[in-house]
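Inputs:
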Amino acid sequence: MNSYQKRSKDELARRVAQDIHDGAYVNLGIGMPTLVANHIPKGLEVILHSENGILGMGPAPAEGSEDYDLINAGKQPVTLLKGGAFFHHADSFAMMRGGHLDICVLGAFQVSATGDLANWHTGEPGAIPAVGGAMDLAIGAKQTWVMMDLLTKKGESKIVNACTYPLTGIACVKRIYSDLATLECTPQGLKLIDKVEGLGHAELEKLAGLPIQPA
Amino acid sequence: MINKIAPSIAEALAGVKDGSTVMIGGFGTAGIPNELIDGLIEQGAKDLTVVNNNAGNADQGLAALLKAGRVRKIICSFPRQADSHVFDELYRSGRIELELVPQGNLAERIRAAGAGIGAFFTPTGFGTELAKNSDGSPKETREINGIQYLLEYPIYGDVALIKAECGDRWGNLMYRMAARNFGPVMATAAKQTIATVHEIRELGALDPENIVTPGIFVSKIVKIERVATQAGGFKKAA
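Outputs:
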């Protein structure tokens, strides 16, 4: 009988947000990572980067005041905070590739224990490949964090020894924030940061299918 | 006297030749030069290579250019969209060539072309499927100070079609918000850059501190009306 509860999407977003420091420049990937913006502790100044050319991105505008020249990388209308700035694409990706962003939070299909990331393409025959900024984001920030469920819908671990999906980047993921545990990816493999209450270490290793060095 | 103001879209696009590489600015709803794309469809140039972040949406703009059979090859980072059915069909039936480039490498390859850089080493894409040339051979790599890099070459345009906010007769341009996106780099990388603007100001009226694209990079500007479409900014789709 399981005596633990998975983190909900919002709980997971809150857990990620806890580790973001005051003054950080952060890029939140499309999908689940965008939820993190709703949980940044009050009083912190965190500057969100959107790769289409915005620093200081604010929340969605009120209904009716959308401006379609002011959108995020997911092409949804956003707002600009005081102090925000616009810039062109080459500058925007220089901010990533040049190591100026502190943190990038991404979703993933698979992450290897040493931090290889697969999140852009399933590689299925007939699937149209599309990469966008995924490869630039994966290797560009000082720290790349992945936010995902530990298991697929079929119950397979998304943390693997070696990715079977096409790679986005090699040894680029520093931390995995999942619904069951927070893990560090190191050259020696996984290391536990924390896990949900009631989940045993051995059980977590069994679910992940890999050894995890205790915290 | 310099006067880069073209009286019409048709006149601005008159010189586009068959076989050209056409850079088209825009990301999402922002900065897409829809009027110039429509003009290019009318103008009739074919066998084009298009450089854009995406590969068209729904049935208008770039998707209409693809549908008209004018595009031989597209160089982009994200062709797959919920409504990219025109591209999807052409690609699946082998009627269009795709060169998929990570978005930051795309921007930097365009920048390199405009800046006279012969090639550059980038960490993005190293060790991935995109570290291959179109013939499947591996791209050149090099380790520099312990980091692995890929060699990427510039993307040169014959023509760049971009959307700016305002300009003057010297071709100086200012942009609006996130509609800036690829405009300034594409303007530098093409032999000929054609920009639409919503406003043409007297020479000297644009604040020189705020000119983003200096006129040296611009060949022609055309004034267009601001329409209440998404790509026109300001308002929801009409």
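Remarks. The longest strand of chain A covers residues 79-86. The longest helix of chain A spans residues 9-18.
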